[in-house]
């Protein structure tokens, strides 16, 4: 799955604060994602993130 830094992930399950959108800060074997509502950052294994992605929102690159 092609997930890049700067993408917004819409997840199947929501964060405890109620938001289900996360910003990707780092990708590799683990993802560092930030909740769009409360700003909490978490490191999550790639397999767990890819299993729970509903949609990837990618900002169009300018250029």
Total domains: 1
- Shape-level CATH architecture: Roll
Helix amount: 10-25%
Query: Judging from the principal axes of the Cα atoms, what is the shape?
Result: globular
Query: Rg to the nearest angstrom?
Result: 11 Å
* Whole-number mean pLDDT: 92
Number of helices: 1
Q: What top-tier CATH class fits best?
A: Mainly Beta
How do the SSEs run, as a string of H and E? EEEEHE
CATH topology term: SH3 type barrels
Strand content: 35-45%
Please report the total strand number as a whole number: 5
Q: For the largest sheet, list the strands in their spatial order.
A: 4-3-2-1-5
Give the termini distance in whole angstroms: 24 Å
Largest sheet: 5 strands, antiparallel
Helix- and strand-based class?
mainly beta
Protein model, in words:
- It is a single chain.
- The chain has 63 residues and is mostly beta strands.
- The protein has one domain: Roll (SH3 type barrels).
- Helices cover 11% and strands 41% of the residues.
- It contains one helix and five strands.
- Strands 4-3-2-1-5 form a five-stranded antiparallel beta sheet, with helices on one face.
- A hairpin with a 3-residue loop joins strand 2 and strand 3.
- It is globular.
- It starts with 7 loop residues before the first strand and ends in a 6-residue tail after the last strand.
- 8% of the residues are buried.
- The mean pLDDT is 92.
